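RECORD TYPE: inverse folding
INPUT: structure tokens
STRUCTURE:
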């Protein structure tokens, strides 16, 4: 919770990466579900990589691929 609070306080991004070989264990699956529930309760926005990229282009006005090619 502390990490999620800190990220929320700065307007940051939290990326969760769970591998299929661990999620199939009940303790990890429970932790995964609890984490998603906590973030949902905090009002987090969930998106795919594409959705995040679309949001970034719209809000920031920078195409990251174009930016990285030119720098």
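DESIGNED SEQUENCE:
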């Amino acid at each position: 919770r502390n990490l999620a609070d800190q990220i929320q306080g700065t307007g940051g991004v939290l990326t969760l990466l769970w591998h299929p070989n661990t999620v199939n264990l009940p303790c990890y699956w429970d932790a995964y579900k609890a984490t998603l529930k906590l973030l949902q309760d905090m009002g987090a926005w969930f998106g795919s990589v594409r959705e995040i990229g679309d949001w970034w282009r719209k809000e920031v006005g920078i195409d990251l691929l174009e930016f990285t090619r030119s720098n």
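NOTES: Residues 26-41 form the longest helix (16 residues).
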